[in-house]
UniProtKB/TrEMBL annotation:
It is found in: Cytoplasm. It catalyses: 7-aminomethyl-7-carbaguanosine(34) in tRNA + S-adenosyl-L-methionine = epoxyqueuosine(34) in tRNA + adenine + L-methionine + 2 H(+). SUPFAM superfamilies: QueA-like (SSF111337). GO terms for cellular component: cytoplasm. The gene is queA. Belongs to the QueA family. Transfers and isomerizes the ribose moiety from AdoMet to the 7-aminomethyl group of 7-deazaguanine (preQ1-tRNA) to give epoxyqueuosine (oQ-tRNA). Pathway: tRNA modification; tRNA-queuosine biosynthesis. It comes from Sphingomonas jinjuensis. Its EC number is 2.4.99.17. GO terms for biological process: tRNA queuosine(34) biosynthetic process. Monomer. GO terms for molecular function: S-adenosylmethionine:tRNA ribosyltransferase-isomerase activity. This is S-adenosylmethionine:tRNA ribosyltransferase-isomerase.
Length: 342
């Protein structure tokens, strides 16, 4: 499938640089499978869902995975994107031409890593020295890995450490936030519960590959980076019980959706899952595990816009995004939301 089918004109000033305050004050475009688009706000979500539905959140926690260091006289930047061992992380490296196998990069203070095993995608394995847990090293030397579309316009600051975590963040390991859940507050969760709408969590450690542009001309030539995820048996059983009772599984975010679909068989049964997934969803995919999706607005030609087009239809999503752009919706990680109900 040609990638340019998923292109559209997005004014750069529509990419949000800060989230809405309060979080659930963000706008939400409701996109039904048929009928008119509806402008709403996230705080109105309880009225848009049905009693017996369940929302599925990703409880991953973003780690300070952006590092700045030096190898000799060369400035080296690294964005960790996938853990490969107790002290080894795969990383995308800036100024990678100055890095060679066996080089030691000093990320200071007291944080060094040896580069090895360069991947086909240009990434490097970084083996962190010492006995301290790598998480402590990153807390000391790293900073929040904001998407390049935001970081290129302003520096990361202390406010991002709070803004770029969801209220469900519990399992450290992501290098990008599951941003659809950034809109949720305890009061909204309470309102949903009062309306008979349940929620549960799974874990998918989002990698920096989510930021990478699609450089291929055809979707068949694009390679997704693997990400680690887990759905435990109790969660799988609960999701299956909701469906059996006539409720809908609504994924909050494309990360939750991708893991649920990875864990669901052709029979529509969600099974426990523990491992890597590199699922790539494009139009023509038959959804098995989810009945709806709440997600932010994505960038042109991105794998995420391809995913929502697979769920709702490319023509439908092009029309929805044209409406969003015309009516001032804010895009991407800190932007507004959409509720997609095929």
């Amino acid at each position: 499938m040609k990638v340019d089918l998923f292109d559209f004109d997005l004014p750069t000033d529509r990419i949000a640089l800060r989230p809405a305050v309060p979080r659930d004050a963000a706008r939400m475009l409701v996109v039904p499978g048929d009928g008119d688009l509806r402008d709403a706000h996230v705080r109105e979500l309880p009225g848009e869902l049905r009693q017996g539905d369940i929302l599925v959140f990703n409880d991953t926690r973003v780690i300070p995975a952006q590092l700045e260091g030096r190898r000799g006289d060369a400035s080296i930047g690294a964005t960790l994107h996938k853990r490969e061992g107790p002290r080894r992380w795969r990383a995308f490296v800036r100024n990678a031409k100055r890095v060679h196998d066996g080089d030691v990069i000093d990320f200071g203070p007291g944080v060094t890593a040896t580069a090895s095993t360069r991947g086909d995608d240009g990434s490097w394995a970084l083996d962190f020295a010492g006995d301290e847990p790598v998480e402590l090293l990153l807390d000391r030397a790293g900073h929040m890995p904001l998407p390049p579309y935001i970081a290129g316009k302003r520096p990361t600051d202390a406010q991002d450490a709070e803004d770029y975590q969801t209220m469900f963040a519990a399992e450290p390991g992501a290098v990008a936030a599951p941003t659809a859940a950034l809109h949720f507050t305890p009061s909204l969760i309470a309102a949903l519960a009062q309306a008979g709408i349940a929620h549960t969590t799974l874990t998918l450690h989002v990698g920096a590959g989510t930021f990478l542009p699609v450089k291929a001309d055809d979707t068949d030539d694009h390679r997704m980076h693997a990400e680690w995820g887990r759905i435990d048996a109790a969660t799988a059983d609960r999701l299956n019980a909701v469906r059996a009772a006539g409720g809908r599984i609504i994924a909050v975010g494309t990360t939750s959706l991708r893991l649920i679909e990875s864990a669901t068989g052709e029979d529509g049964v969600v099974r426990p899952f523990d491992g890597d997934t590199s699922i790539f969803i494009t139009p023509g995919y038959r959804f098995r595990g989810i009945d709806g999706l709440m997600t932010n607005f994505h960038l042109p030609r991105s794998t995420l816009f391809m995913l929502v087009s697979a769920l709702m239809g490319t023509e439908r999503m092009q029309a929805a995004y044209a409406h969003a752009i015309k009516n001032g919706y804010r895009f991407y990680s800190y932007g507004d939301s959409s509720l997609l109900l095929p």
